[in-house]
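Retro notes
What went well: the complex prediction finally ran end to end.
Inputs used:
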Amino acid sequence: MEITHQEFKRCDLFKLIGRIDSATAPQFAKALEKAVGSGKYKLVLDMSELEYMSSAGFRALLAAQRAAKKYNRGEVTLASMPDRIHEAFDLAGFTELFKIFDDPLQAVGHF
Amino acid sequence: MQTLRFPARFDYLDEIREFVGNSARQNGFDGKDVYNIQLAADEAASNIIEHAYKGKADGEIQISCGLEAERFAVVLVDYGKSFNPSHAPLPNLSADLAKRRIGGLGIFLIYKLMDEVYYQSNPDKSNTLTLVKRRA
């Protein structure tokens, strides 16, 4: 898994590349914790090049959403979620916990 | 049925998914079903590594998969602590963000993604988890 980062005026865009499972989720969780820990509470995660995500990744997203939304200071939004990941996300009941946009710039514009 | 043995470590999940996915594909499943079977097998193996072996370094998972009578089975055998997935607490899907529990999600997904799930434990010997997807 790889994560690239792009800073915008009102939010931060992270592009997730590859696969997030129990092996790589700790690295993903750490990147999100680091962002929130350094005062970046408005996050867009571009999933267009994410091939796979298991529940380990969902858990990291949940923890990040809790941290980002604290004191109403921000939120984690998702963009370009591949259908197969979206389907599992739906089954896990996570869809309602995140705003999901068709493309990353739309998500950036939301902030 | 094809059978392979894997070290019970998270860094082998890639190979586990590849093994199970190739077998599902060879047996006529399409991309979406292949993904879901891989995800169920990953969640099952992750649970074995995390709970049956509790991070013990030298554990092993034996995985067999194949088609019998239009039913594709993934059979995972471990030699660690038994843990019956049907006894796991279900996540509360209507809880809001603050109250949403993080545990049990993998097992919940396994039941959602597969058509049949069986667990058999021989105490102090081995545990066998069988996941079945019916071919439409």
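What we learned: The CA atoms of residues 17 and 29 of chain B lie 15 Å apart.
What to try next: split runs per interface for comparison.
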